[in-house]
């Protein structure tokens, strides 16, 4: 761009710019912005392309009306008759009726069940969402439109097939909440409902997956799939034997887009962590950025300069950083990435003596997940915590490949339209926009941009203070733990109380109460990414959530008291989170969060609800009734428990049932339900009045403090305001120092802002700036889409191989004995060809073939072929029965006979080779049958177990090596693009050759192991001696540990 163009651009921007007098002053956006652009909707797009929500309504309204026509007849059924509908529909589906043909009736039944159990009647638009999900599409539904309830409609319908339905959520909290809440509708209708939580046992997982509908997180489901394909015993499998059938993915964009860049990996420990991580960290701290190395934040990579190489090699005393024997380059690059690209309280937090990753899209900690290739160890060295052992990949799969393995998948989210192309191209999932139940009345103000971050944060503080004084609830979205705590300190300075929700454990535990009360008058809530926060923000406060929490706070201490535990209930204590006073308060709260749960078993902490959550005090008479109901519930439930001990988890599960309307004959549940309804009614009187007050003030005000790399995440934050037609407003505060501007915005915007000569605390609202920011976000989205598409293309090559390997494993696990025998005989015959062609050159005359060496190779491969290895007369007789012995003389005669009468030397050689192949194939198959009979004589069924074991272990070991080789090839082929060769094509070709070799190696290794297997019956005295030796070693171990500790 030349200077003339830049001047024109600047003049245009100045004309567009509107500089407010004060940072806290808002002006309504011009009407043209609402018509032709802005965040509040794009009418021009609707005029040109048609209203997508209108198209959806037109397509589905006939079937929705059909469901409505059935409503009076279904409503007239009593509870037993309504439940009987499930068996009736199941029978029709089993008889051959398609699910599509029973959809209308099934939806009508599920709708009525929801009314009776939850008191919620799914709206017509929710029925549309359910139909879209059943058809294997993505339903885009605005925040607050009831996606959780929508999921039960297709889940109920597809569960009628009896093949299992998975409802996939992004975290344990949402899976548990959905299972306890809307899962009651399915249970009421006679379906079994399972729940998978982290830490569940194999038996618990197996039972949950056998249920008609299973609530599970995406990571638990993916890891169960991988673990199942590492099992060596069919009894250890947890997923259904027949495979997956149908799944509904909540927050589908988060799982299939945001998390698609990170594959799921199960690793095994390799060796002890190297001290090189610590040395590399010290060296990285000494090196200087832009001198010894450069950082590309866009590519998230680090490059060492020539000066850096020289300095590093001198300090380390090596001549080559890339020497494969020391691999210093890898250690140093990871240390530099840990230093420059992995920020504490942004990409990770330190919890105890452990580095825990923070999900950049959801703001949640990812327990148990680790960065690969040594990066996690480098971060541990940087933080000075214990460095965990290095790992080797045992199994891996991307979410893309995993979910494409389902015959049919569907998803729902509030923000899918921006990724419509990706969903179509990669997953074959069309995106359908579901109309809202009520018109959106939220106002999205234009972005405000500052020159510096300091100016931005001061303006945010001013805005929050103004809104708080006015009495409006405020939700502030930040992009990291660090930012959320920094803003909290700013608000402390001006005395504004706030709630803090970020990835820190002490805050995560109270998520539902924090989000549930974020709509109360004057409430200020600071939250890292709001994606996946499943509790609705209801203006005036959520009376139902508050009533449930009140009963929980009375129930758990009663449980503890009645069971004689001394721990007592944990209480909020000290400064309340609504009245945080900086770092000391946060540290005190963290200490409170470490209190063990009321049962004293330490598996899950119980922290009492903050008293400020409750809308009002409960009268003494009602509080007494609540306590009496809690005592009755605990007494009733304890009597039914084995051993008379009731766990906190079980108590909370039953409390969740008590707070709904599902029919029950449990005396404890009924007692709690009665007082719950009374408490909720009391709270509702307060919250409804407060809601009217908040609406009169303008509703929830949402503040964004930085544009995310994806527009979807920004839209999710905006969607928290204006729920179900409520009033609300949003505004984003930005600075030119924000990551998005810095990396993708270019220099033109900075140059233009500099020419304005504005102070750092003076904002500017400009259509051009907003457009440039939208353009930058689109660049980022395109950039990451290209990365995900590339990963998908490469992973598809590996996935074809993975499917074949896992299919072979499953066959080995479940195959009958005769199938295993045929497989082993095929392995034996196939390996003969490998040996023959590896040792005979058809172009060489047969007279020059070293037949003795060839026979020696076969004997080396299968010792049974050597007649001198017979152990005794019985063994000799068994060998003669199967005719397994080979000799050089027999082979020589065979070759001579095959060549006789042929004048063509090439044809004669081929005939001789074919004759040898047939001879050795016959002998090796006979040797296998001999070996099988020999082992079976020791113990019946032993050979079948051994064969299964050999197939599984050899497959796993060689697949593990294959994964490492494929990863190396993927890195290597990238450079071939400079030679005008397509890296993906090269990867496919080399990967295919490697896979073929791996399969051949599995075959050879398995049959060799079978031949070498020698079974001997162990005498009782040998078993007794081995057990005694083991007991002695176990007794000696504590003494060794004591000595080691004393040292």
UniProtKB/TrEMBL annotation:
Give a Gene Ontology cellular component term annotated to this protein.
Answer: membrane
State the compartments where it is located: Membrane
**Keyword Coiled coil assigned:** no
Q: Which CDD domains match?
A: DEXDc_SecA, SF2_C_secA
Q: How does it sit in the membrane?
A: Peripheral membrane protein
The protein's UniProt keywords, in alphabetical order, are:
ATP-binding, Membrane, Nucleotide-binding, Protein transport, Translocase, Translocation, Transport
Record-annotated Helicase ATP-binding domain positions: 128-268
- Where in the numbering of this chain does the SecA family profile domain appear? 42-765
Q: Name one GO molecular function term.
A: ATP binding
Matching entries from PROSITE patterns are given as: HELICASE_ATP_BIND_1 (PS51192), SECA (PS01312), SECA_MOTOR_DEAD (PS51196)
HAMAP family in the record, alphabetically? SecA
Protein's recorded name: Protein translocase subunit SecA
Q: To which species is this protein native?
A: Pycnococcus provasolii
């Amino acid at each position: 761009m030349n200077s003339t163009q830049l001047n024109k651009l600047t003049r245009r921007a100045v004309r567009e710019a509107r500089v407010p007098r004060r940072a806290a002053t808002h002006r309504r956006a011009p009407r043209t912005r609402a018509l032709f652009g802005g965040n509040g909707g794009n009418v021009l797009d609707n005029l040109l392309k048609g209203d997508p929500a209108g198209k959806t309504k037109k397509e589905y309204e006939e079937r929705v009306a059909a469901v409505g026509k059935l409503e009076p007849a279904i409503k007239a059924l009593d509870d037993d008759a309504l439940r009987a509908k499930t068996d009736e529909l199941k029978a029709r589906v089993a008889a051959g009726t398609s699910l599509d043909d029973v959809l209308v009736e099934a939806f009508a039944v599920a709708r009525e069940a929801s009314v009776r159990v939850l008191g919620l009647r799914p709206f017509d638009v929710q029925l549309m969402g359910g139909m879209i999900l059943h058809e294997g599409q993505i339903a885009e539904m605005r925040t607050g439109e009831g996606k959780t309830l929508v999921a039960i409609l297709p889940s109920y319908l597809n569960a009628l097939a009896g093949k299992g339905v998975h409802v996939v959520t992004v975290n344990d909290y949402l899976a548990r909440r959905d299972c306890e809440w809307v899962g009651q509708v399915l249970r009421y209708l006679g379906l079994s409902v399972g729940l998978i939580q982290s830490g569940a046992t194999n038996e618990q997982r197996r039972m949950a997956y056998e249920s008609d509908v299973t609530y599970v997180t995406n990571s638990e489901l993916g890891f169960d799939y991988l673990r199942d394909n590492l099992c060596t015993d069919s009894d250890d499998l947890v997923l259904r034997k027949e495979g997956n059938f149908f799944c509904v993915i909540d927050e589908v964009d988060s799982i299939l887009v945001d998390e698609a860049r990170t594959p799921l990996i199960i690793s095994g420990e390799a060796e002890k962590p190297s001290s090189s991580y610590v040395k590399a960290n010290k060296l990285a701290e000494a090196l200087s950025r832009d001198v010894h190395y450069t950082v590309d934040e866009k590519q998230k990579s680090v490059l060492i300069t020539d000066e850096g190489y020289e300095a590093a090699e001198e300090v380390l005393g090596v001549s080559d950083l890339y020497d494969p024997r020391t691999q210093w380059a890898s250690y140093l690059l990871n240390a530099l990435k840990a230093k420059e690209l992995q920020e504490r309280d942004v990409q990770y937090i330190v919890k105890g003596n452990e580095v825990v990753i923070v999900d950049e899209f959801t703001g949640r900690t990812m327990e148990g997940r680790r960065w690969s290739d040594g990066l996690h160890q480098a971060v541990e060295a940087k933080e000075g915590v214990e460095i965990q052992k290095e790992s080797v990949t045992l199994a891996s799969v991307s979410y893309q490949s995993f979910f494409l393995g389902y015959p049919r998948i569907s998803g729902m989210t509030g923000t899918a339209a921006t990724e419509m192309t990706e969903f179509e191209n990669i997953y074959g999932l069309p995106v359908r926009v579901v109309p809202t139940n009520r018109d959106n009345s939220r106002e999205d103000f234009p972005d405000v941009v500052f020159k510096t971050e300091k100016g931005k944060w001061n303006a945010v503080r001013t805005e929050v203070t103004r809104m708080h004084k006015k009495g409006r609830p405020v939700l502030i979205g930040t992009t990291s733990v660090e930012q959320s705590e920094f803003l909290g300190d700013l608000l402390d300075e001006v005395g504004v109380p706030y709630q803090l929700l970020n990835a820190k454990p002490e805050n995560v535990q109270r998520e539902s109460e924090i989000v549930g009360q974020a709509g109360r008058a004057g409430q200020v809530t600071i939250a890292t990414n709001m994606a996946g926060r499943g509790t609705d923000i209801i203006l005036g406060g959520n009376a139902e959530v508050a009533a449930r929490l009140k009963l929980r706070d009375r129930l758990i201490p009663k449980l503890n008291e009645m069971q004689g535990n001394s721990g007592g209930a944990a209480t909020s204590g000290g400064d309340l989170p609504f009245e945080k006073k900086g770092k000391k308060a946060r540290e005190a709260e963290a200490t409170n969060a470490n209190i063990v749960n009321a049962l004293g078993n330490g598996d899950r902490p119980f922290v009492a609800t903050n008293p400020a959550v409750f809308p009002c005090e409960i009268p003494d008479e009602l509080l007494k009734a609540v306590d009496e109901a809690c005592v009755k519930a605990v007494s009733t439930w304890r009597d039914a428990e084995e051993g008379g001990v009731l766990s906190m988890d079980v108590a909370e599960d039953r409390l969740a049932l008590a707070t709904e309307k599902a029919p029950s004959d449990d005396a404890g549940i009924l007692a709690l339900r009665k007082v719950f309804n009374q408490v909720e009614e009391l709270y509702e009187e307060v919250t409804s009045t407060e809601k009217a007050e908040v609406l009169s003030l303008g509703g929830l005000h949402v503040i964004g403090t930085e544009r995310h790399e994806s527009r979807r995440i920004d839209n999710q934050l905006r969607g928290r305001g204006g729920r179900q037609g409520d009033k609300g407003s949003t505004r984003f505060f930005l600075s030119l120092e924000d990551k998005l501007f810095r990396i993708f915005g270019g220099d033109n915007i900075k140059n233009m802002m500099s020419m304005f000569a504005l102070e750092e605390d003076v904002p500017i609202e400009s259509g051009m700036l907003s457009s440039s920011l939208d353009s930058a976000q689109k660049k980022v989205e395109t950039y990451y889409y290209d990365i995900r598409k590339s990963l998908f293309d490469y992973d598809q090559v590996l996935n074809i191989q993975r499917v074949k390997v896992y299919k072979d494993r499953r066959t080995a696990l479940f195959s009958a004995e005769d199938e295993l025998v045929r497989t082993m005989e095929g392995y034996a015959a196939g390996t003969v060809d490998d040996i023959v062609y590896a040792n005979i050159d058809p172009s060489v005359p047969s007279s020059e073939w070293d037949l003795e060496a060839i026979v020696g190779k076969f004997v080396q491969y299968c010792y049974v072929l050597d007649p001198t290895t017979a152990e005794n007369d019985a063994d000799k007789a068994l060998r003669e029965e199967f005719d397994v012995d080979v000799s050089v003389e027999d082979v020589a005669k065979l070759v001579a006979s095959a060549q006789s009468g042929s004048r063509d030397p090439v044809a004669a050689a081929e005939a001789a080779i074919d004759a040898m192949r047939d001879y050795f194939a016959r002998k090796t198959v006979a040797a296998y049958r001999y070996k099988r009979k020999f082992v079976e004589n020791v113990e019946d069924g032993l050979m079948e177990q051994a064969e299964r074991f050999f197939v599984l272990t050899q497959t796993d070991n060689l697949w593990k090596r294959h994964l490492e080789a494929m990863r190396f090839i993927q890195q290597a082929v990238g450079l071939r693009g400079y030679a005008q060769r397509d890296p993906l094509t090269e990867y496919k070709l080399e990967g295919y050759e490697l896979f073929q070799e791996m399969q051949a190696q599995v075959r050879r290794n398995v049959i060799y192991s079978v031949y070498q297997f020698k079974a001997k019956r162990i005498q009782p005295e040998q078993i007794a001696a081995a057990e005694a030796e083991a007991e002695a070693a176990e007794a000696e171990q504590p003494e060794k540990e004591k000595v080691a500790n004393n040292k």
